[in-house]
Amino acid sequence: MREQLLQKFGEIFGGTDGAKLYFAPGRVNLIGEHTDYNGGHVFPCALTIGTYGVARKREDKKLRFYSMNFEKLGVLESGVENLKPEKEADWTNYPKGVIWAFGEKGYEVTNGMDLLLFGNIPNGSGLSSSASVEVLTGAILRDMYGFAVSNQDLALIGQYSENRFNGVNCGIMDQFAIAMGQKDNAIFLDTATMEFEYAPIHLEGAKLVISCSNKKRGLGDSKYNERRSECETALAELQKVVDIRTLGDMSEEQFEANKGAIASEVRIRRARHAVYENQRTIKAVAALKANDIEEFGRLMNASHVSLRDDYEVTGIELDTLVEEAWKVEGVIGSRMTGAGFGGCTVSIVKDSAIEAFKEQVGRAYLDKIGYAADFYVVEIGDGPVIL
Ligand code: GLA
Fold first, then answer.
1. Ligand 1: residues within 6 Å at CB?
2. Which of 17, 36, 114, 174 is catalytic?
3. What integer pLDDT is reported at residue 218 of this predicted model?
């Protein structure tokens, strides 16, 4: 991999002197979906698949970008000054956004760079290829300029750039999971306080399987922002009757006793998801610590039902993948992961059932949806590294 990437960099940008290779992972969220912008808990982990970048500082102010995933686009050029998001959403808006965000935070990027990327996360799959590029860019800039920023800062700067430069009102989960990833551990993060702990994931006799729907998110970003504002409105309505800062502050009982303050049935369902999903996440981590993987799986399944019925972010593709997975013997739990509206599901599958899982779910999906799903057995990896 290393040799191939450096060679390609040399061909595109002329030689490899001074070029360095970096990697940032993708992520999968095990449970705690659409809770991170509601002051709730999340439980994601970094993966061993992700984005590789070869980068070199330039003497001038030019930014030159090349992605091996979008070779047809060729080299895309811009300047390091006056960075603005381009209307056409090409991938360079992510590294450009992070360069811009470093400047906003007082870390001035003075020079241009040549940057070649290669990602082995399926694009638009809900495994955070964009946050992976953001954290990767941050790790490159930190190394190139010696900026005193921690991995947690890289996560915050990545989120800031996605919110302000790319106009997606995402929470902190993706960038945090990627920047703070630790091999064989998931991260139990309280997004209200940013307190977190690592929880070892030892799936004895089972693996994490990602099923990719191959449905691109499309309208996802605007729907995402819509869900977010529905929750904000519901919170404001609840705050008239209870003393809470976020939906993550509420217990299920407190929600049931006060939900009448929310004036629309749709918003009641949105807020119900946020409250119950947060509590489910806390319970799931407790179950995992008690070695009760079956209970963890049941909570994953309940998470999907809530995302399907109350939050309405699944769609026929993700529902088919999950409902077919539930039918396979040896599946401990299965749910959609990430923002939804397409993308992937995550399942915990016993080793002995993995082949049957791919076969049965794959066939049923193709029959119903008309195109194939892809399956990946994944491993939990570390955060960004210089290779
Ligand atoms: C996207 C966002 C995250 C989070 C998830 C849903 O991945 O980037 O911040 O809100 O959706 O849980």
1. 33-34, 36-37, 170-171, 173-174, 338-339
2. 174
3. 58
Q: Among candidates 157, 165, 104, 158, which has minimal Cα distance to 129? A: 158
Measure the CA angle with vertex 176, ends 70 and 214; round to 5°: 40
- Count Cβ atoms below 10 Å from residue 369 Cβ, excluding itself: 16
pLDDT in tens, 173-209: 999 999 999 999 999 999 999 999 999 998 989 999 9
Ligand 1 centroid to Cα of residue 175, in Å, is 10
Ligand 1 centroid to residue 15 C-alpha, Å:
39
> What was the pLDDT predicted at 247?
98
Cβ-defined contacts of 369-376 (< 8 Å, 24+): 369/213, 369/316, 369/317, 369/320, 371/214, 372/214, 373/211, 373/212, 373/213, 373/214, 373/321, 374/122, 374/211, 374/212, 374/214, 375/209, 375/210, 375/211, 375/212, 376/49, 376/209, 376/210, 376/212
Does pLDDT of 303 surpass 90?
yes
- Check if 310 is active-site: no
Tokens of 275: 């409250």
Sequence letter at residue 322: V
The CA-atom distances, in angstroms, between 233 and each of 102, 323, 325 are 32, 32, 35
Please name the residue that has the structure tokens 């300029």: 145
Residue 250: closest CA among 230, 218, 279 = 279
Q: Picking from 9-18, 117-126, 280-289, which range would have the lowest pLDDT averaged per residue?
A: 117-126
Per residue in 43-81, pLDDT (tens digit) is 999 999 999 999 999 999 999 999 999 999 999 999 999
pLDDT of residue 355: 98
The DSSP code sequence of 135-194 is: HHHHHHHHHHHT----HHHHHHHHHHHHHHTS-----SHHHHHHHT-BTTEEEEEETTTT
